[in-house]
Amino acid sequence: MKKFKAVFLCDNDSRIDYVYSRDQQKRIAEITELIPGRLDSRNFNSMDLSELEVIFSTWGMICFTEEQLARMPNLKAVFYAAGATDSFARPLLNHHIKLVSAWRANAIPVAEFTVAQIILSMKNYFANTSAITGPSGWNQDGAGPGCYGETVALIGAGAISGKVQELLKNFHLNVVVVPSRPERRTISLEEAFRTAYVVSNHLPNRQDNQKVLTREMFASMRRNATFINTGRGAQVDEEGLIDVLKQRPDLTVLLDVTSPEPPAEGSELYRLPNVHLSSHIAGSLNDEVHRMADYVIEDYLRFAEGKPLVNEVTEELLMTH
User: Fold this and answer.
1) Which domains does the chain have, with CATH numbers?
2) What's the pLDDT tens digit per position in 290-306?
3) In what order do the strands lie in the sheet with 5-9?
């Protein structure tokens, strides 16, 4: 197996140590010719990168300029131990530099988190438990339909949505998927919001997806329905959502992401009884982040042996998810 000349690169050095465990860093040093030290925007111009072939990175990856790419004429591949690559992928792809992302690994904890919330939402668990403040609240009048034959709408058709679909196969639910690209849809966003008992957002972080989940969609939701957001806060018309939630106390909203994040001081999202906030914990955290490092190490080994990559990011992937 060939050993490529490699470096760790990240504009937040602590992220390297967070995502790549000591054992994983040691493993990378064994299977590459690892350049000592870490590369970032501050020391980029002071390092000789003419022989650099492979980069290992994570959150804090640089979007390279043409001048920076010119200083790395032998760069062949970037292994990104995190998820979305939209913010830096295209300069690499335009220069035919292979890009590997741990998007499938990062999708796993988000999907697990989402499925847990979907199952509880099917019982209308969040509204039920919030209503129990004394004996008078102890009733089943507002209980949800349960997990037998009901409809769940997944907004987005990427890796997270795919993993949610896989996990939901264990339940007797009608799962409807609405791809982010309108031309690929067999059902509209409006119909999904109108018909599903639970709607879960997994849209990719693209400019054209901002505020596409509108006031009208939330207002059209079924009685006691739930909206889950583990995508991006900017994809939601939050002002419109807040207005609807004031008028529709029967609805439940579970927000792991908001815009801004956290919500501004005084935001009604903190006070509305039918809003449940979590602090962006759905994605890979703590022990889970090392799975992302494992994914890119495994693909590096394939790369070094001349085998096809499993988690390669392509232009087609960027355009269809």
Assistant:
1) 5-105+286-320 (3.40.50.720), 107-277 (3.40.50.720)
2) 999 999 999 999 999 99
3) 33-39, 5-9, 54-57, 77-80, 98-101
